[in-house]
Amino acid sequence: MLEMDWLGKVHGSVSAQGFSGSSPDGSRFLRVTDHLTVEDWRGHSLGQLAVDPTFYGMPTWADDSRHVCGIGFSSNTGPGSGTASLWIGALSEKPRVVGTVGEAGSDPPGVAACSIKNNRAIVTGTLMPHWPPGGTRYLITSYIQVINLSTGAIEYEHQYPLGNLGGQLIGTGQRGDWVLVAVSPDGGYLAESGVFNGKTIIREVPTGRELASFPGSVAGFSWDGSRVAVSINVGGVTESHVITWADQRLTWRGSGIAQSAVARPGSSDLLVSRSSVAGDWYDQVVVREDGTSSVVVMNGRVWSP
Fold it and tell me: Is 168 helix (H, G, I), strand (E, B) or coil?
C-alpha cells in the first residue's frame, strides 16, 4: 500500500496484508490479523484495540481520526442472525458496546459513518440481488439506522423497498425500487440514489427530511457534506461530476463513472475514483475546492510529481 498526499506525491509504503482502512486524516490505519492493531502511516505499531477477535466485518474510523466503530457478535449469535452490537473504541479508551443494531433475519449490518462531532453512527444493511432474475447483480441498501453513540438509542431508521427477492430467483417476483445509500462523513446527510430511476434524494439526519433531489447517482460526500461526486447521464454518455447538492452547481466534470469518493478533512477536496463504462480504464483524480483537478493514479500507475 502506498502513502500519498493530496498532491499525488508518494511518501512511503506499507504491507497490504491485513490492511483495513486509513483514518480520515491519513495519519494512521488499522491492520487486522489475530488482533486489531493501529499503525502510523509509516507502518509502526501504535498499539492494539482491546476488541474481541470475533468482531465481524471491516471497522470504520470515526471523523476524529482517533476512534473506531465496528460491528460485533456475541458468542451465541453470528452474522446470519442479522442483529449485532455496535461498538466504539480508541487506543486510549476501552472499547464499549453502544447498542444493538441490525434486523433479525437480514444480512449482517455495516457501519457507514461514525461521527464523534455529531455523536452518532449510521448503520446500513446491504444486499446484492439480480435483475432481471439470473441477470446482473446490483449492490443495494436494504435498511438504515442512525444510532446515538452516548445512549445507543435509534434516532432514525428506514426500511427500503426490496420487492419479492425470493420470487426474483425464479422469475416471478416484482422488482423493488432499489436504492444505494451514501453517507456524509459527519453522518449529517444521506444520499439515496435510485438504482434504476437515475435520481438521487438528499436527506437530513436524523430527521429524514428531504432537502434536495437531482439526476444521477452519488458516490460520496465532501467533508462538510456540501458537495457530492455523482455519476450522471449527459446526452447518452455517463460522466463524473462534482456538484454542490443544494443548488446543483457544477464544480468539476470528467468522463467515466464515479465509483467512490474520499473526503479531505477540513476541505471540500475529494479524491474521486472512476472508471469507464466498459471497464477498460480506471483512475483516481483529486478534485479541489476551486474546481481544478489532478489525476494521481491511472490504471494502477501512480502519477506522482
Answer: helix
